[in-house]
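so my prof wants the structure for this chain in the tokens format not the other one, which i didnt know existed until like an hour ago. anyway here's the sequence
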Amino acid sequence: MFITKIGQIPALAEREDLRKVASRYPLKVSSYYLDLIDVHDPHDPLARIVLPHQDEFWEWEWGSIDPSKEGEYTVLEGLQHKYDSTVLMLISNQCAGLCRYCFRKRLFINKKSPEVLKDLDAALRYIKEHPEITNVILSGGDALMLSTPKLREILARLREIQHVHIIRLGTKVPAYLPQRIISDQDLLNLIQESSWPTKKIYIMAHFDHPRELTPLAIQACHSLMRCGAVVVNQTPLIRGVNDDPQVLGELFKKLSFYGIAPYYVFQCRPALGNRPYVVPIEEGYQIFEAARGLCSGLAKRARFTMSHFLGKLEILALTEEQIIFKFHRAADNRNTGKILVYERNPEAYWLDDYAKPLAVHPLAYDTLFPSIYV
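here's what i got, hopefully its the right format
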């Protein structure tokens, strides 16, 4: 069962301000996940993840509808090709819960979003015609919210393309609705059939807080791993959820205990309405490094990154006066590995909040940034 109206949550039913927020940015939470929340605690971190907050009411015009300009990398409806070896297929606009800080709110605000893939044949033709593509990401929305038969069709047809080695399923189902995995043997069989010794299925899980790692969630991830999938975790850094080194460090440690590799910690994107959830970059870096300092090597594999229009930037280091970024992967692959040095700005939430870089090594900034700085 899914809750989609404030009136379905007795403790919040009279909150008119929350009704207004939910009318703008929809509410959806599974019964399972709602049972993990203390709805009477205004500081409950899991409530912060999924229930409307009054702060959204005051700042719902903050941010951009498409903060990473994904539209500019869309090669056909529902298919993005930003990095040479990787394409992203938006195969669903359904999730088992709607994260308040979602950077693709546009898919849920517009129920008939033109961005969701509708022509699978065209997408597969594009992938076949580009032999440099070795990775396909199935996302949305949530890949595991597709029916198993539909997912089977997509995976089977992708496995017919010889140069596609890795298929990634972007999902928060293990956190929001682990029963979807545990109770569907056909889904587990599909994962086992599709994850080969030389061509793996990766589950890009999304646990934000240690309390999400319930026995059912762990069982779901273990079931996927037993079927040959590789399970990794990515989470944004969220104000009021995991912006504490002890909490983030505990998340890293528990993930490593359960065999789930900490993969990325993302700078929360400045999407429309996200202001209450965003931590400034430099504060976030210090939280991230303090959390890693509490962990063993296996638990500290995550990178603190920003999914910018120009590429995936790792927030690499802070000095007293400067912040240093590195292109973990650039949209123009010639720039991958380049180092950007900026004067510090403690109020910066995104790369664009910094002035022109003090230095770019080993490439001049006017080559790397032809239009972002004017």
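also thought this was worth mentioning. The first strand starts at residue 2 and ends at 3.
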